[in-house]
């Protein structure tokens, strides 16, 4: 059974940083494209960062480009989303998703998704 579990969310002041983790069981990240999504109350789910299945290409939405970085630790079967310079508009539930042999971006459906972790930005 495939399971994705996110962690690392929490409360941070504007301008602060957080690192989210996405740990997988039941699949090997080495063959999967990973996408990070976020959804704030009353808003649509937004794809914000993606890494292709070969781990070579990344994509970032304009809203997070230059502030967020997606990375992969194959040995730990873990994906990370490093977030810097967090803004008041960044609070949301952040979740990761995986798609076997997927490309980079959000033009396809991700087969597996975690429950998410809450990120709050407040002074």
Strand % is: over 45%
* Secondary structure category: mainly beta
Poorly predicted sequence stretches spanning 5 or more consecutive residues: none
User: Main β-sheet, in a few words?
Assistant: 7 strands, mixed
Strand and helix order: EEEEEEEEEEE
Task: Give the rounded overall mean pLDDT.
Answer: 95
Q: Output the radius of gyration.
A: 13 Å
- Helix tally equals 0
Shape field: globular
Distance between the termini: 40 Å
> How many beta-strand segments?
11
Q: Give the proportion of residues in helices.
A: under 10%
Q: Can you tag this structure with a few keywords?
A:
seven-stranded mixed β-sheet; 123 residues; mainly beta; single chain
Characterise this structure.
This protein is mostly beta strands. It has strands at residues 3-7, 10-12, 18-25, 32-39, 46-51, 58-60, 68-73, 78-83, 92-100, 112-113, 117-121. Strands 2, 4, 5, 6, 9, 10 and 11 form a seven-stranded mixed beta sheet that branches. The protein has a four-stranded antiparallel beta sheet with strand order 1-3-8-7, with no helix packed on it. The chain is globular, with a radius of gyration of 13 Å. The chain starts with a strand and ends with a strand.
Short description:
By secondary structure, the protein is mainly β. The protein has no helices and eleven strands. The strands form two sheets. Strands 2, 4, 5, 6, 9, 10 and 11 form a seven-stranded mixed sheet that branches.
List the helices and strands and how they pair.
Elements: E1 3-7, E2 10-12, E3 18-25, E4 32-39, E5 46-51, E6 58-60, E7 68-73, E8 78-83, E9 92-100, E10 112-113, E11 117-121
Parallel strand pairs: 2-11
Antiparallel strand pairs: 1-3, 3-8, 4-5, 4-9, 5-6, 7-8, 9-10, 9-11
């Amino acid at each position: 059974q495939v399971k994705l579990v996110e962690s690392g969310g929490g409360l941070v002041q504007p301008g602060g940083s957080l690192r989210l983790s996405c740990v997988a069981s039941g699949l090997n990240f080495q063959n999967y494209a990973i996408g990070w999504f976020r959804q704030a109350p009353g808003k649509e789910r937004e794809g914000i960062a993606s890494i292709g299945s070969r781990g070579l290409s990344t994509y970032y939405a304009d809203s997070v480009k230059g502030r967020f970085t997606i990375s992969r630790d194959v040995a730990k079967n873990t994906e990370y989303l490093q977030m810097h310079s967090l803004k008041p508009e960044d609070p949301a539930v952040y979740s990761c998703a995986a798609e076997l042999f997927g490309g980079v971006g959000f033009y396809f459906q991700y087969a597996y998704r975690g429950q998410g972790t809450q990120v709050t930005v407040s002074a």
